Amino acid sequence: MKITVRAFAQFREVVGEVTVLDLPQRSGLPVLFAALASRSDESRGMLFDDQGAIREHVIFMVNRKRVPRSSLDSIILYEGDEVAIYPPVAGG
Amino acid sequence: MITITQEDFDPGVYINAARDRQVGGIVTFTGIVRDDGITAIELETFREAALQELEAIRDEALSRYAIQSVDIIHRIGTLSVGDHIVLIVVGAPHRRDAFRACEYIIDRIKETVPIWKKEYTNEGSRWVPGEHT
Predict the structure, then answer these.
(1) pLDDT at B132
(2) Interface contact flag, B116 A61, Cβ < 8 Å
(3) Which residues of A touch B50 (CB under 8 A)?
(4) What distance in Å separates the CA atoms of residue B129 and residue B118, rounded to the nearest whole number?
(5) Which CATH number do you get for residue B90?
(6) pLDDT tens digits for range B74-133
(7) Distance of alpha carbon B88 from alpha carbon B111, whole angstroms
(8) Is B128 part of any domain?
(9) What domain range includes position A44?
(10) Are B45 and B4 spatial neighbours (Cβ–Cβ below 8 Å)?
(11) Is residue A92 part of a domain?
């Protein structure tokens, strides 16, 4: 299934603005993050810490709704979903 | 009005627009680019999500405080020292709730609205670190 990933700020500079990933049906966010990380060492270093956990400063939305870190493992993705990843915001 | 725009704005226009027979005070916050030894800043947004979040913050402010109107204009793109970044205009019957609501809105914007700043100096560039994960 196709999932669109949009990345912003320094994440955009590393991962790219828009990435379409082809993931197995009913994949979750950890699978998506692993797929992104496999694209370059720089992507892996930005998304994952040395223990292989997704870094604290990675914020994510699915279909423009913020997903709390506590739901990281419980979200199931579906064909056509849009995942956004970005660092802590700094507007205002 | 909630807007994200590359264009500059005139705060006076929005202050006048907030006038109303029930409004006894208008409180504004204008964010401008400070000279921290930078040559420019660039603001980036996830526009659809940022507009949605700004609307949610406006609605929260309207329900939490006794205020009549909220306008938020946030700029993106390349800005120079002294340029406007953001304008918040709160109209209310009485000043106290207008001040509180205005502060609440700018604090919430800094916490959750997907907008980022990159600073440019003569030495290079850096992303301004956000404070809230």
Answers:
(1) 82
(2) no
(3) 91
(4) 9
(5) 3.90.1170.40
(6) 999 999 999 999 999 999 999 999 999 999 999 999 999 999 999 999 999 999 999 888
(7) 16
(8) no
(9) 2-86
(10) yes
(11) no
